[in-house]
Amino acid sequence: MNGLSANVVFEAGFFSSSPVHVALVAGGMVAVMSGVVGVFTVVRGQSFAGHAFSDMDTTGGSAAFLLGVGTLWGFLAVAVAAAGAMELLGVERRRGRDVATGVVLGAALGVAALLLFWDTTVSSTTGATTTILFGSLFTISGATVPATVAFSLAILAAASVSYRPLLFSSLSAEMARVRGVPVRLVGAGFLLMLALAVALSAITVGAILSTALLIGPAATALRLTRRPAAAMGAAAGIGLLGVWSGILVAYDSAQWPGHHGWPASFCVVAVIFVLYLVADLQGWTRAKRTATGQDRMARGG
Amino acid sequence: MGPAEASGNLVSLDGISVWLSGHEVLRDVSFSVRPGEFTGLIGSNGAGKTTILRVILGLQEPTAGRVLVKGKAGARHNRSVGYVPQKVLIDPDLPLRARDVVGLGLDGHRFGLSTSSGVRRRRIEEMLGAVDAAGFADSRMGNLSGGEQQRVLIAHALIGQPELLLLDEPLANLDIASGHEIVELMRRVATEHHVAVLLSAHDMNPLLPAMERVVYVAAGRAASGTVDEVVRSEVLSELYGHPVTVLRVEGRILVVAGSHDQTEILASAPHWLERT
Ligand SMILES: Nc1ncnc2c1ncn2[C@@H]1O[C@H](COP(=O)(O)OP(=O)(O)O)[C@@H](O)[C@H]1O
Ligand SMILES: [Mg+2]
Q: What ipTM does the predicted assembly reach?
């Protein structure tokens, strides 16, 4: 034991553990990227597509496990294939988009059920299902880190380049089209960005919880600010806070008295959810205050 | 120089017909809009107003006929036309302030990182002022009232310095006072910015003080001219294909279709007769 005060927060070895380094870097990078993509996702009303991608990633993850390649590559392959299929099936209308998502999702989940079954029976490793569904922050191989960081940076770059056309077509596709925004192309590009973002976050918190990392911080940020760039910054910050404090709690909990530790993905999502509740409560009381204070004069005017 | 430009028209439609899923939505529609002119595009629901605007914008290919914008075919991506669609549903969660929406009208179509220069900020500020929206420039778009949103959208369309502004039913869902404010604003903007306005509505009465010309649409056909030329029993009977009567009551215009035992108000119902 060294340094009494630091020990209260950081258990021994936190800063020298190499799995912790990997988790902090890869998880942090993915959190920032997910926050930014998440704001666009919420604003464009594509949370369902985001959720569908996370479910479909179980298919890719389980296939990769069977084939013996890295889970990340399984996630990424499925992301590209699913985004392509949804774009091909999907119509420009919002309703058509959800239907296309549902169809592709159903097919992918059927395959996932089969593959997960094989993963556990054929290879007789129960670890596969857990890793795919709930992530592997502490067992990410060092080799996946560069790819994770590179993909995250590429997505961030793509999001910043298409920042204005993306916002514009979220305001009104028709108005954007009239001003020369290639609305269809921008939409397809975003779908691919979203698919990749979910795949990367599935690596950290698992396929099942990746939507929480995508949508949670974004939804929280949108409660806090009304400026688009600020919302993205806040979402990135909240995601980062969630992932890093989740890693810390998970690491520390292994040393806590009792029987078992708390898994990192649970801690990450728990932190994000609590932050959302706090922001929501705050926004709710604020809305109530202004509503009673100055009852909006002349509804129509 | 094209023929339309030679004749001084900003937009001209010539024998436009549009078929949509087996229905003739527009039949032989011809009219033109001159620079700086305020034109009302009047017709009841389903008459074809939105389709006409979409044809001008190049969003809808006509089955027959020709549309010229500044003497060129099709206005697609034409910077000289600004557009506010009929229903812009704004999600309350959309993190855009009124000033962000106006800014998107300036450079929202550009890729790459945005540069927030002082010149850009000043132009946005100016535009917000021009539509009396400076007071809620920093409010989230989704929290504004219908009339306030309409002003912001007009500023958004206007900041690109178009020569023609197409507004699709901007008065729908507004109360009478806000409707009058928008019409008054459009009249002022048309003069000050020298922009032609083509504004669609199902009731022409709120537009009467501002409207220089009218394009009256009924069942896909259109008649155009001044209000006195077009809104007459003979002209509209011909357009509707059955007898209608134009009544003027206390400075308001009422178009009714009637036989002895049944009377139906076709368009331009005064507010006290409108169903609410
Ligand atoms: N995509 C479409 N397919 C088939 N019919 C359509 C389509 N769009 C519009 N219509 C029909 O065209 C007619 C004119 O529509 P519209 O131009 O929207 O009228 P308005 O704007 O005057 O209410 C309506 O009868 C409508 O049902
Ligand atoms: Mg319409």
A: 0.85
